[in-house]
Write a structure and sequence with these properties.
Elements (H helix, E strand, L loop, with lengths): L11 H10 L56 E3 L1 H9 L4 E6 L1 H4 L5 H9 L3 E4 L2 H7 L8 E5 L7 H8 L6 E6 L4 H14 L3 E5 L8 H7 L8 E4 L2 H10 L3 E5 L5 E2 L9 E6 L7 H6 L2 E4 L11 H21 L11 H9 L7
Parallel strand pairs: 2-3, 5-6, 5-10, 6-7, 8-10, 8-11, 9-11
Antiparallel strand pairs: 1-4, 2-4
Helix pairs in contact: 7-8, 7-11
Length: 348
């Protein structure tokens, strides 16, 4: 990994956007008078454009100077569905209350876990399905719901430390995912394929809500998530920790199957509508794209993430797990060695 210098850019799209995104000093020009020698009239009572001093009290002003952020739905943490609640019970997560229908309470999968949760102080309410409909706003609760403590996000430093406990870890960074169904699907795919964690920003992105937990289907019980104030600063911190940053962009010049993913990896995925921001693209070491053959111009964010993750792990499975099954002559040994240790093209 040390033999390859970090490229500054990888996509021609970024180079073309430099001129349009550079910020200079804001220039404020004064409007000249229409006639030379015209005197400037002072701000008197006759002036129609008299400036009113800013002496109004804060509560009398009509313009709001600060916007109070809307509280996330995660403030009322409710998980529902058999897989989600069962995973929370099996991991002994702190549950304040469980609502469950009678036939499911005595199911062999739930009965012993419900008794253990009750011993730990969880309130167990045996309810009718209609009550669960009201509690979950008619969601697909499958006969059980639980109120849990707010999700405990991991610090970025802790996420890095945990990730580097395995060889060649993979972390997902989501740049502005706003749909909880997409985020939940990303978490489910990432945990199933063996990734070490997820990084999300605090602003302009969904957090870990009950919908995310439902879609993740229990994956969050074994999958850490870190939430950061500044995603770009976090990516730089990951670079300093030895990670290579790969961003997914539709207009990137490197098809994903031609890139050899090796070493500690961060896969950055963009928002549903805008994709990766320009600033985030500049933080990436490489920009990769998923070639499409049909007329559909782009993929769903969670689908694209799943495909990119599969390609990362497919290369590693081929290069590490199945080398003993390959049949090659002694002259081919150098080719296999270069495929395993190189950081260039996967075809080299």
């Amino acid at each position: 990994m040390t033999s390859k210098p970090r490229p500054i850019k990888n996509s021609s799209a970024i180079n073309s956007e430099h001129s349009s995104t550079e910020k200079g000093k804001r220039i404020v020009s004064r409007r000249p008078s229409t006639k030379p020698g015209t005197k400037v009239i002072s701000n008197t009572a006759k002036s129609v454009a008299k400036v009113i001093p800013n002496t109004l009290k804060r509560h009398d002003r009509n313009v709001s100077e600060s916007v109070t952020p809307v509280r996330d739905k995660e403030d009322v943490d409710l998980i529902y569905g058999r897989h989600s609640v069962l995973s929370a019970l099996e991991s002994e997560r702190n549950l304040n209350r469980i609502w469950i229908v009678s036939h499911l309470r005595y199911d062999h999968r739930f009965h012993s876990l419900i008794l253990r949760a009750k011993e730990n102080g969880t309130i167990i309410d045996e309810v009718e399905p209609k009550r669960l409909d009201r509690i979950t706003s008619s969601a697909n609760h499958q006969g059980v719901a639980a109120q849990i403590a707010p999700y405990a996000y991991l610090d970025l430093s802790d996420l890095i430390e945990r990730a580097k406990s395995v060889k060649d870890p993979v972390i997902i960074a989501a740049d502005g995912i706003e749909d909880p169904h997409n985020l939940g699907a990303i978490i489910r795919s990432a945990e199933a394929l063996g990734s070490q964690g997820l990084l999300i920003p605090q602003r302009r992105a969904v957090g870990i809500t009950s919908t995310v937990m439902k879609v993740a289907a229990g994956a969050l019980e074994n999958f850490p998530v870190a939430r950061v104030v500044n995603l770009h600063r976090a990516l730089e911190e990951l670079k300093a920790a030895g990670f290579w940053i790969y961003g997914t962009a539709a207009n990137a010049s490197e098809p994903i199957h031609t890139v050899n993913f090796s070493g500690p990896t961060v896969l950055v995925v963009g928002s549903e509508g805008e994709g990766l921001s320009i600033l985030t693209q500049r933080c990436c070491d490489f920009l990769v794209s998923i070639p499409l053959q049909g007329k559909t111009p782009s993929l769903n964010a969670s689908v694209a993430t799943g495909m990119a993750l599969y390609e990362i792990y497919r290369q590693r499975w081929v290069n590490t797990l199945h080398l003993d099954k390959l049949k090659f002559t002694p002259g081919d040994a150098s080719l296999v060695k270069g495929r395993v240790n190189g950081r260039g093209s996967a075809k080299s």
